[in-house]
């Protein structure tokens, strides 16, 4: 079945935006009973015949198309652009940009507010406490940050960015709500890339330990132009990335990577955000000499398995730039950080903000 590539432009008068989508359209519209959008060029088993054009190559057969090991098995739609968010959000983004248009980003719902403020305290201790942006996944989290004095660093998320509604509770790993929350984080980063922002994304169960970490990681993206993203590792075997800590440049490569990550998350409810991102990385060149991906070493950027379970940085006298309290669930995260002296939050201060919010809500109900 032969295929033509068409550029389809859709005008949306409501949003005043153009969405350009590359789609493969069959010349034989349902002539063989197949889906009219089906394209056999993605199935090598159906692309085995060669045609001879007497006007090309002296009548010799065309050379076979080489296999691409990292190619997707299905067509992938990568957005060309998105509607620009409201100016208030754009202003908050611009006001929190660091050198090189690097934005420190996190996202959380109300149920993780204690980790949010512990994360912020760690930023302050590493001289990064002024410019960062917390995307609040629910209104309660945003109101709490405003009450705590962090309005310039807090943002609500446009409804158009969400694919599923996020609730405010603390969620266990692998639960349905946890999957929705982590999936929303990818949607946020995707939108920021289209605003020409280099994103340093950090989960809030991470503690920053050393100054100039942002500059250190950004250097990897600067000294080698082919490097588009630097990931923390999951585990130790350099095969799985952790989607809770990475720096990503706004390039066609990274936009395509996130487009597939989101597609996999939308169409397969068994995937966590991290599982979807690692699956999408299967279609990225990971050859050591040509890859666009850098893996941060596990001693300076340890995950919970490396730092808490095996204590390898401690055993080798390495001072990490950060510690990720993953591999821990629920209250074990806070307990383990407290054990190591990495819980910086004054819990009484948090209780006072909670009480302030509660009093305000009671007064509004009485009106």
UniProtKB/TrEMBL annotation:
One of its GO terms (cellular component) is Golgi apparatus. GO terms for molecular function: glycosyltransferase activity. Pfam families: Nucleotid_trans. Residues 49-58 have a biased composition (Polar residues). Residues 49-68 are annotated as: Disordered. Residues 130-336 form the Nucleotide-diphospho-sugar transferase domain. Belongs to the glycosyltransferase 77 family. This is Nucleotide-diphospho-sugar transferase domain-containing protein.
